[in-house]
Amino acid sequence: DNQTLWQSILCVLLGVYVVLGWRRHTIHWHTRFGWLQKLNWISRLRRPPKWRPLTQAEMSVMDPGDFEAYVADHIFALMGYKVLDTPNVKDGGIDILLEDQYGAQSIVQCKRYSSTVGTPVVRDLYGTMIHSGAVSGYLVTSGRISSDARAWASNKPIELIDGAEVERLAGELPKHQRM
Questions:
Q1: Helices marked H in the chain — which ranges?
Q2: How far are the Cα atoms of 26, 107, 141, 161 from residue 138, in angstroms, in the given order?
Q3: What is the pTM (predicted TM-score) of this model?
Q4: The domain spanning residue 172 has which CATH number?
Q5: In the list 75, 142, 151, 169, which could disulfide-bond 60, CB 3.0-4.6 Å?
């Protein structure tokens, strides 16, 4: 009958929507040395922010994909940026793509390190920023940033955020800007 036909069509359309929606989140594969390392789609489902503020020690042992999601959700989204998804495979060095209220795009590179990030990483970020046409770049790490890297970035539209600053921002932003 006609009602059963419409119910069947609706079920098929709903199924297609669910499958494509889940596929969008399961495409974020992390590969290293040519083999599958981890499927990290759970982090991408955490929008709006549901993280509690983490300590620098907790961030340094997170999965790199979870650290990216934490930074996107708990720092930049709460700062008012629109956080755009980027695929994790061959992303060209862009871990997070941001858009401000005027439509200007910035890029974020996240480094979940327990050690110090040096000048070569900042240079790579700057090259990626220029290549992508972004107006600014952010380097966010769970570790430290060398003084040479800070000096190199000082006259460029790059903001360097180390683990202590991430911890501070994560603790302060929710108090003032929780949506």
A1: 2-26, 56-60, 64-71, 119-132, 147-153, 163-177
A2: 26, 6, 10, 7
A3: 0.68
A4: 3.40.1350.10
A5: 142
Total domains present in the chain:
1
Please tell me the predicted confidence (pLDDT) of residue 1.
Answer: 72
Q: What is the mean pLDDT of the chain?
A: 77
Q: For 44-95, write each residue's pLDDT tens digit.
A: 444 444 567 888 888 888 888 888 888 888 888 888 888 886 655 455 778 8
Helices (H), 27-146: 56-60, 64-71, 119-132
pLDDT bracket for residue 17 (50, 70, 90): low
Query: Alpha-carbon distance 18 to 118, whole Å?
Result: 43
Report residue 100: phi and psi, to 5°: -85, -175
Return d(Cα 161, Cα 167) in angstroms, integer.
10
Q: Which of 143, 156, 152 is nearest to 117 (CA)?
A: 143
Q: Is residue 34 part of a domain?
A: no
Sign of the torsion formed by the C-alpha atoms of 89, 95, 99 and 105: negative
For 50, the token pair is 């549901």
Domain that holds residue 151: 42-177
Phi first, then psi, for residue 167 (nearest 5°) are -60, -45
Residue 121 lies in a domain: yes
